[in-house]
Design goal:
alpha/beta, Glutaredoxin, 2 domains, 9 strands, 20% strand, globular
């Protein structure tokens, strides 16, 4: 054999071997690309689900924030020295009573939770017992609760009460005088009448306010305040 033919024969096997070696590399690259293409949809779908979930969570937060109503503004508390709020409401016997009826006179308003209950009965009887003393001090008396007129009249007749009893079923006067608010009993919170007494001077202004009243001896304390006014 000539030298040229030997060189060609030596190149041919090596070239074939080289081609065989390169082929697996291309297949591996192809498999890698196919694996990537298979993984891509899964990652995209995961991202899409995550985005959808976050969008739903955000929409729930927005909806919940919209459903929550802002807290109601509390009415300013009745303070001594301010003008007494006007009122005009029915009283026992069917008549109507207003603040204007007592212009130029001192007036005691005692707000009680419920007619003919033990504490309210004692309080009303104490004011009745001192009614003449209040009159001598130029002071009128009015009892107020949310009871209907029939209950007020029954309360008056049963205990021979000596002052008009106002029925404020809509809580208009009760709220204006700060006698309606949050109460608690047996671990439960609710809205109701707060036992309160207000002394109004002859000038129509609030002279004294007693809140969370304790019945025993209270009428005597109010009488002394009316006398000194």
């Amino acid at each position: 054999m000539s030298k040229k033919s030997r060189k060609k024969s030596s190149k041919t096997p090596s070239g074939i071997a080289t081609a065989k070696k390169k082929t697996p590399t291309k297949r591996a690259t192809t498999q890698t690309k196919s694996a990537k293409t298979q993984r891509t949809p899964a990652s995209k779908s995961t991202r899409t689900v995550a985005k959808a979930g976050s969008h739903k969570a955000a929409s729930k937060q927005l909806n919940s924030s919209k459903s929550v109503s802002p807290p109601a503004k509390a009415k300013p508390a009745l303070t001594e020295g301010q003008k007494a709020p006007a009122f005009r409401l029915p009283r026992d016997g069917g008549d109507v009573v207003s603040l204007a009826d007592y212009a130029g006179r001192k007036l005691v308003l005692f707000f009680y939770p419920r007619a003919d209950t033990p504490g309210c009965t004692r309080e009303a009887i104490d004011f009745t017992r001192l009614a003449d003393a209040f009159s001598a001090a130029g002071t009128a008396l009015l009892g107020i609760s949310a009871d209907p007129l029939r209950a007020q009249e029954k309360f008056r007749d049963k205990h021979s009460l000596g002052m008009p009893l106002i029925s404020d079923e809509k809580h208009e006067m009760l709220e204006a005088y700060g006698a309606w608010g949050e109460k608690s009993m047996y671990g439960k919170t609710f809205l109701g009448i707060l036992r309160t007494t207000v002394l109004i001077g002859s000038d129509g202004k609030v002279a004294k306010v007693w809140r969370n009243v304790r019945v025993d001896g209270h009428a005597e304390v109010v009488l002394e305040a009316a006398r000194s006014l």
